[in-house]
Amino acid sequence: MTLTPSHIIEYLFCPRFTYFEYVLGIPQYEDKNYKVMRGRHLHDERLERNKDYLRRRLGRPGAPVVEKLVDQYLTNAFLRGVVDEVLAFGDESMAPLDYKFAEYKDKIFSTYQTQLYCYAWLIEDNFDRRVDRGFLVYTRSNNRVVEVPITDENKADVRRAAEAIFSIIDRNFFPKATKAKARCVTCTYRNVCIK
Questions:
Q1: What is the pTM of this model?
Q2: b/e per residue, 11-48, with b = 16+ CB within 10 A?
Q3: Ranges for the DUF83 domain (predicted)?
Q4: What are 117-172's pLDDT values in tens digits?
Q5: What DSSP string runs through the chain?
Q6: Helix 152-171 vs helix 5-13: angle between axes, to the nearest 10 degrees?
Q7: N or C: which end of the chain has fewer CB within 10 A?
Q8: Which residues make Cβ contacts (< 8 Å) with residue 180, sequence separation at least 6?
Q9: Angle 152-171/110-127 helices, nearest 10 degrees?
Q10: Is the C-alpha dihedral spanning 161, 20, 1, 122 positive or negative?
Q11: What digits encode the pLDDT tens for the residues 49-58?
């Protein structure tokens, strides 16, 4: 079994999410969420339209974008995922680019950042190239592109989360709930969770 960035995001939301969904097998019915489904459809549309478009302006001085790999399915020992675009730069670094069916409101959600950190980890493992930034395209804000810095600590954090998820699943371990109790209000497992 390998994880997806969604598993990591759910675990960071609350470790008990992992327990309810993957130890007890209680589904969360994510497919009913309109934005999730619209976003998935939009990814397919964008990938078809932009196959030959190279984002040269995202490069650094002396290190322009030199290649774009579209719709990349990547794996490592822990994780798997499809990256909308993997950008290669002239300085041998790479970066993930991900489309979001969302408006940019001067704030980057932690879930979006975590997804980019996961992709950075996958890109480094698969291409043996450094990743120190990623990009988000907000399709509901006229395709605004926002750069997100990615540190070694960010990549180590998602690796630690992946190891913790496997520990919960392998040991049937019931973890402590998140300390952010406001998350419990919207959690799909609020009716079965012990406070």
A1: 0.88
A2: bbbbbbbbbbbbbeeeeeeeeeeeeeeeeeeebeebee
A3: 6-194
A4: 999 999 999 999 999 999 999 988 998 999 999 999 999 999 999 999 999 999 99
A5: --B-HHHHHHHHH-HHHHIIIIIS-----GGG-HHHHHHHHHHHHHHHHTTT---GGGSBTTB-EEEEEEEEEEE-SSBEEEEEEEEEETTS-EEEEEEESS---S---HHHHHHHHHHHHHHHHHH-----EEEEEEGGGTTEEEEEE--HHHHHHHHHHHHHHHHHHHHT--PPPPS-THHHHH-TTTTT---
A6: 80
A7: C
A8: none
A9: 90
A10: negative
A11: 666 677 878 8
Cβ contact 192:14 at 8 Å? no
Q: How far is CA 78 from the centre of its chain?
A: 14
What's the pLDDT tens digit per position in 57-111? 888 888 999 999 999 999 999 999 999 999 999 999 999 999 998 999 999 999 9
- Give the pLDDT confidence score for residue 29 in this predicted structure: 67
The pLDDT value given to residue 30: 57
Burial grade of 58 (CB within 10 A; 0-12, 13-18, 19 or more): middle
